[in-house]
Amino acid sequence: MNHFLLAAALTLSAPAAMACETVAIGDLTVEHAWSKATIGAGRPGVFYVEITNTGSTDDALVGIATPAAGMPMLHETVVQDGIASMPHAMSIPVPAGQSVQLSPGGYHGMLMGLTTALKEGDSFPVTLTFEKAGEVTVNVDVLSLRAEGPDCADAGQ
Amino acid sequence: MLGVGAYRTRNRPALSEVLPLPIGEMSWALTDHRDQSVRPTDWAGHPVMVFFGFTWCPDVCPTTLGDISLWLEDLGADANRLIVALISVDPERDTPAVLADYVSNFDPRIIGLTGPAEEVAQAAADFRVTYRRVDKDGGHYTMDHTAGVFLFHPDGRFASIIDFHEDRRFAVPKIRRTLS
C-alpha cells in the first residue's frame, strides 16, 4: 500500500485527525498539536505541540494565543530535588536543525481562563508566535485527560 | 558514651527526616473522593502506592495519573489489593466532588484524598513531602510539590520511590515487589 493511501486511511479513522496535520512557516514545521479534556472551565487547559526547525537560523516560540482561553501562557515543568514546579517560560528556543516538543512533563502551553470546558473530540485553533518566523495557526485536538499524545502514523512519540 | 549518644542523635533523625514513616506510624485523617473518611490504619495489610498532587495542575498530575493507570493495567488483577491514592496538596480547590470527577478519568483503583489543611500538612509531614503555594498573576495560584510516587509493603514499611518520568520497565517491577 502506498504511503499516501495509508495516511489517508489513518486520517479518516483516527480520532486525532487535526493533530496529525503539519503546518509550515518558513523553515519551521509545526505538528502534533493536541490538548487534554478539562474538568469544567475553571481549571487551565494544556497545549502540546512539536516544532521542527529545518533552517540554519535559531528561532524561538515567544507566545501563544487562542480564542479558547483568555490567558494562554508558556510554562515549563521542572522537577528539581524531587519537587515539581511550573515556572513561566518567556520563550522556548527552537534551535536551527532541531526539533522541540511541548510535551507532558516538560514545556507546555497553559491555557488559563478557558472560555468553555475542553471536551474530548473538540478542536480549537492556537496561533503560535515565533521570534523570527512570525505567526502560524494550528488546529488543536482535545484528547482524553489520560492521553499521552495523538495517534498519528508519523508521530514521533 | 557521650560521643556515641551525640553520634546517634545527629544521624538517626537525619535518616527519618528523609524517609516516609511506616504507614502504621502515620497520623493523618483524610476524606476520599466518595466522602468516606480514611486513616492510615485502614491500609493495614495492603501494599500502598501514594503520590501528592492537585487537580488544577494541567501537566504533572494527569501525566503521573496516566502513568499509574498504565502500570496498573500492566499489573492487572495482581494489583487489586494495592491501595493507590492521590493526596491533594490543594484542599482549598480539591473537594471530594472535584476529586471524584478527576479520578473518574483514570484507572478505577485510584482514589483521591483531601481534607482540612492541617490534615494534609500532617500527611505531607508523615510522607516527608514538601509543597508550597505559588501565587501567579491574576489572583491564580499553583502548587509546587514533591512529584515522586511512594511505595509501601503490606506491613506498612516504606519500600521505594518511583521518580517522575521513571521508565515503566523499572516502575512496574518496583510495584510488583511490594505486592507479595
UniProtKB/TrEMBL annotation, chain A:
SUPFAM superfamilies: DR1885-like metal-binding protein (SSF110087). It comes from Stagnihabitans tardus. It holds the Pfam family PCuAC. Keywords: Signal. This is Copper chaperone PCu(A)C. InterPro entries: LpqE-like, Lxx211020-like, PCuAC_sf. Residues 1-19 form the signal peptide.
